[in-house]
Amino acid sequence: MKSTNLVVQGNSRVWFSQFYSLDEPQFKLPFVDFNLNSDVPLYIDPYAITKDQTELALECHECIVSYFQTLLDAVLINDKHKINRLITAHLSEPNEIHLGVSKKARGGRGIGPVQEKEVVDALAHSTAAKSGFIQSIQELELHIEGVGPDKISDLIGNIILGKLAGYTEEICQQYGIPTDYIAVSGYWDEKSMEWNGGYFNLPHRDTHSYILIPKRFVRYSKDLMNHREFYEKYILTTLQRELLSADDSLVQTLKNGVRRVTKKSMKEDNRFAISKEFISKYIMDNPVVMESYRTEVISRFRPADPAEPSEKALIDDPVIFDTLAKLKEIGLGRKHANEYHNVIFTLIQFIFDWALDNFEKEFKMDAGRSRIDIICDNYASGGLFRDFVDRYRATTLPIECKNYSTDLGNNEFNQIMERLGPKTSQLGMVFCRKIDDVSATMSHLTDRWLRHNCMIVLFDDTLVEELTYMRLSRDFTQIQRLLRRLIRVIEYKSTSYY
Would you list the domain boundaries of the chain? Predict the structure, then answer.
């Protein structure tokens, strides 16, 4: 087991990974790293859990569904005592979890008993909950006063706390983090259908224990289901069209004859003033509009890099800048192949950590007769890399690194082809130093796509640098856009690669 001699005082900035001597940047860690004296302003997203393919996510999803169904059953029969037991003291984030807005002295930023009673009363009298218009736990945010995205995250944190404690045990065993047998209370037990408690082997500092969160479970608050977003983007937009058709008093006619209804005037009109009561009634009267919003939120893929809000990026990013500088200094040829391999290994873990994991170098295949330079798993629950699973069966990605001074030829492309197939993956990546003969290179790539239905994406130093800077900007959309363009030019054998 690893031990630590770090002493944490006051508001000193020491991350969990540093305290336990892991010496790993956030992009190499599967969990959210955090400052021991603060919190990371990210939130647990139930949809991210639902779409995740891991066994942990499945267990958490089943736990959430069990709790939510129990809550709905209590609301349906107006069992206020049970609603109170299900809600009270569980709208505050567990102290073991370091997410959300920073809490002084780890005392919790939860709501008080008066506000909790208001939430219980609102639930007990919710027509939407009783009539089946609330279909998932995150939709409570749209209907119930006092429940925002942060409270949904806190409630989810309590519900799956036991699952997360088990996950923390596994992480600690994997990384050699010292633990003690510590009590954890207030998590949902889907078997007894009640709140429960137990003991887990957890890391701790003095009397404060820690429970870790998979980074794939978290999102920014703005990316969660939110009543203000629904009101602005869906309710007001739909009502604008309806008011224009009805020639409502809010309709304005401009000098050029154009008729309009402004959102500003609608917000100021008492008929449409924002409130949870108004939104809830609107959803019940317009279920199709709600279904459109629900579909949009479910389909979102907006990964969050915890290193940015936690400010761990101030430590991690300089390492990437140094690694990128090393790439430019590495000489060409077999002599420097290992050095190039190592640099690419670090950079692609950083560039693609939001979609790929379990990176491994020199992976043996064919009973050890061949080796793949790098292989990794594709865990993306949305976006382009999820499309890769559907289009190319790419649950894993084989990657080859070629530190050649010349363009790649048949032998090199045939080598990656040996790793591809309908029962492994039909998508592979090759990293090389440069592309001189674009026409010949495009022929290699497109021919193998058209003839063998295998997609090989080629990256030279220029593309690696461009992708790295996109990732440093946390611009995951641009990364996906660039990859889509590369695939398109391969499919259609364009005259230029990028």
Answer: 16-223, 227-299, 312-491
